[in-house]
Design brief:
Layout lengths: L2 H35 L3 H36 L4 E6 L2 E6 L2 H20 L6 H6 L17 H35 L3 E4 L2 E4 L1 H30 L9 H27 L7 H27 L3 H4 L2 H15 L4 E5 L25 H11 L6 E3 L3 E6 L5 E11 L1 H6 L6 H5 L6 E2 L1 E9 L5 E3 L22 E2 L9 E3 L9 E2 L3 H11 L3 H4 L8 E3 L4 H8 L4 E10 L2 E12 L8 E3 L2 E3 L1 E11 L5 E5 L5 H9 L4 E2 L6 H4 L6 H17 L4 H11 L9 E7 L2 E14 L4 E11 L2 E9 L5 E2 L1 H11 L6 E2 L3 E5 L2 E10 L9 E9 L2 E5 L2 H9 L9 H20 L2 H16 L7
Parallel strand pairs: 5-26, 21-22
Antiparallel strand pairs: 1-2, 3-4, 6-8, 7-8, 8-10, 9-12, 10-11, 13-15, 14-15, 16-17, 17-20, 18-19, 20-21, 23-24, 24-25, 25-26, 25-27, 28-30, 29-30, 30-31, 31-32
Amino acid sequence: MAPRIRWIQAAVVAVLVALVGGRWLVVSTAGRLWAEALGVGATHGGIRQLQTALLATAFVAAAVWCLGNLYLVYRSIGSVHVPRRLGDLEILEAIPRQYLLVAAAGLGLILAIALSHRADGWWYARALTRFDVPVGTVDPLLGRDLGFYLYQLPWYRTLHSFATLLSGVMLAITAVLYAAVGAIRWAKRRLHVTYMARWHLAGLLVAFALALFWGYRLEPVEYVAGIHDVPADTVLTGVRIPVARMLSALALVVASASLIWMWTARPAVVIVPWALLAVASFAGHYVVPAFAGAVRTPEELRHTAVEERRREFLQAAHGAVPEEVAIQALASSEPRAVARHQPELEPAPLWDAFAVRVFLDRVADPDPHARFLDPALDVYWTGDDRPVPVYVAARQLDLSAARQGGADLSWDRVHAGPFTSATGAVAVLAHRVSSTGLPLFVPDLSRPDSAVSGVSELQLEHPEVLFGPGIVNFAVVAPGDRGTVGVPAGGLFRRLALAWVLQSPQLVASDAVTDTALILWHREVAERLNRFAPFARFSGAHAVVIDRALYWVANGLVSAEAFPLSPAVRWRGEKVRYLRSSLVGVVAAATGSTTVYLTRDPDPVSAAWAQLAPEIVRPAAEIPSALAGHVRYPAELFATQIRLLKESWRSQPTGPETAALGQGLAGTASDRLAPYWWVGTAPHDSAARLRLMAAVETGEPPLLAAVVEGVVRRGAYSLALLKAEPPLELPGPTQMAVRFTRLRPDPTGVTGAVRTIPFADGVLSLQASYASPGDEHVAPQLAGVVVGWGGAAGTGATLRDALHNLQTQAPPSGVGAGQWAEARRWFEYMDAARRTGDWTAFGQAYERLRRLLTGMPDTVP
């Protein structure tokens, strides 16, 4: 080969190495600088070191394994000939052995890279093994602490998968290569294997059998952890687990037989044991358990210890065991009874979030290149401790609108000029309107009761929104005295590295980038928090104002694939059996300062990461009191908990009412379960709080079955299930929406969601309607409010007016039609209890029916 060609090849290789290595170097450097700017450089550096060590170890192990095995194949090859034509003659030409060696080395390196290139993702499982504190709860099947499933099992499965992959792939490739060169052949009705190939394949079979042995030993804990999706019943304890242990012993026998094959040329010595293992594995995993389950009755399949503790593990895995609260309500409750709840309804929000956003985008935004983010409902407190529900909405730049408007979107203006950030936010009272039905604004949230009728900006010390949801571009800003968190541009080499990472050569050439300028990237809140705390996933960022500073607060969730006695749920495209939220992320909108706090009563995985990464996760005691009151119930977890409640009610009914609830959830449309935020009290909680609620309907026509509520109390998350006891035919949100449509004087316009609010003695339904003119420059306004209680309904311009009109609908004296309908429902429930033999429910229904008809309590002892 000519020297010139060699130089060209060397140059190409050098360029490729420089590109790959340079990319890795600049990405690592940028990540280190970003983490150091946020004050978590040591922890992120430790994570990078662990990732590098795992990747290097896995690559070296794979390279030694693959190259060593392929070298043995190379040594066993005498020569390889390829056909070649020489004139009219066809000859066989031997391939030089150095070419075979280079090919073997190349194939080995390619295999090593393919088998180990994802090893840096093992850091999560490896880091958790350093936290060996027991949870204190053991599973009822194997008696292992939950900490084993959360902290140890993921790493064991990772190592086992890697070992199985290495041995299995190399065994298959080696067998194919030996067959290709004739070391394995079928002749005279017999399998012939050369001496060298037999020794080599026997060793690989031993390695693969030991990997299978390891897998069979792990199978019992994988069964209990739900990895194989098998039910936790008596078939599991009586068949699957013993079979797994039997297969592990058989795998050792097969490994021994493979070892013996090294010294005997009889293929049956190895073929028969492996065939027996394959048949036994298939039968043990599929045939025998299926037969054992088919011959047992449902009662025989039930594992008593599992059923007794299933709710305990459901709570540990998902926090999905709610506090059950009974509502003693009549479908025809006295309308005047709602008067006693008027003080509790004082902070009730009237406005829907979408209506507030439409209003703000049409009227409150003087900048045509900006739009408002979704308003976030929150509670702020007055000086005399009165709760005030407020929507806070921050602005966000809309570069699409700017582009359509012909704005100059040069690099300097987008990344270092006026289009770097939006400015300002507004606060709107959620429970009051002006005399014309327009929103009232709060300029100072330290005094939330000081509302004004005109559009008023929030008084913020730094109104720039440099960080927020949906911000994807990086920014270049001048350093100031407000403590903006960014990476100084520095000298030429640092700028080159940042320009490569951010794919922006202008960082080197632009005059707007000085040596002291700060480069800000990862400005999107969820992405920033995900990178700040890479062991969690954040979502649902909402705006909060504390001491005249705008912050973004988001819930952080942790998950695990394996957890005992826990159903699997789909979450962000993955199947998980453990999903909890005990982390709260906070990002300052103006400076980018980022903090993650642990909540009170944390889940085990979040607590583990708080111990492993104290630089990232602050303890719950450090949460500022002003911030603690603005922590929301995680909406993403709430949606998962509702799905789990649906499955548990449907699969394990404990009575007629639970069965009906499960059937209703099973056939409930998603929009009927759409959650909504509410500010007020609850039958089991007299404090006014921000509550995430969802009404559950059942039957056709849809009736109200229950209300699920998520709330933060004393710094911890609390889930509650509020349902009528005994169950009644209360109209659900779907029916109430139809009734409210008939009651509204003007059926045109836009209506908000029907919100179902349970009280101890009744259920209130509320819906707001809005006049929305077609002109996009005309502000929508609150057209009216409709409320329903106990079969009666009232309308008004405000909630107070609607409640007043509702209370004036007093029923006539005597037993009215509504009461007779209620009496019929109680009689039907009493008759259903008689048919099912539920005499306790029969007595309750009889007593309620007697009270309804006589109005007198039972005086007979």
